[in-house]
Amino acid sequence: MKKQKIGVSTLFCLGDPFSVMIQRLSTIKTKYVEVVDDGLHSLDKRKVAVLKETGKSFGIEYAVHAPFADLNIASASDRMRRFVLERLEKSIAHASALEASVWVFHPGIKTGISMFYPGMDWKRNCQCIRILQGIANEYGVRITIENVPEPYAFLMKSVEDFMKFYRETNLNVEIALDVGHSNLNRQTDQFLRTFSGKIGHIHVSDNMGINDQHLGIGRGNVCWERFAESLLEIAYEGVVVVESVEHVEKSLQKARELFH
Ligand SMILES: [Mn+2]
Questions:
Q1: Residue 116 alpha carbon to ligand 1 centre in Å
Q2: What CATH class has 5-258?
Q3: Per-chain residues with Cβ under 5 A from ion ligand 1
Q4: pLDDT in tens, 170-205
Q5: Predicted structure pTM score
């Protein structure tokens, strides 16, 4: 059995300057890092160069998490959606420059006027995903779409949402299964059963089943032993990225014990 690759997301230090995050990467013992392309760490040419240098020195492989603050691929405004796609294309280009093994992005979210135009936001969400898939193909980047958390008005949170997506589009974009998020709608097992061959990336963090707390592994009510067993059953071969914002080193250690 191949040993599962364990990584860490830079989400835990998104509040720190980019230079501090780079320092943390050199001390944290992991060879796989998912860079959050947002906030103080929003990528540009200089930051990509620093990451590449750091990657070379420490033998780190990267994933990139798309920017998500204020970016809605299902926006009701054409101009806003154009801007969002432009921003996301930049992120894909940076992921390509970093030779990232995967680019993770969020689906769209309903707006204050969605109720007046039933189905429009869903249509725009799917159109934008199609465009992103096309852009990513040009850059040679593999993309995965993340199941996002309750109680927000996101368009793709549940197994049913993803089934609808695959039924109505002929896209085979893989899923970035976020186990913290699927713990909130109690669908972790169902996600694994329904989409066993379509899961291309995994985020792990813990919570008490009510809020998306991004706790350390084992500090919430996720049944990690069962999840680890399920990964073996579906012969998952992607990376497991720790997305906790506390007890990060301990979580990495736990993940290494769990997923092997
Ligand atoms: Mn996530």
A1: 30
A2: alpha beta
A3: 178, 203, 243
A4: 999 999 999 999 999 999 999 999 999 999 999 999
A5: 0.97
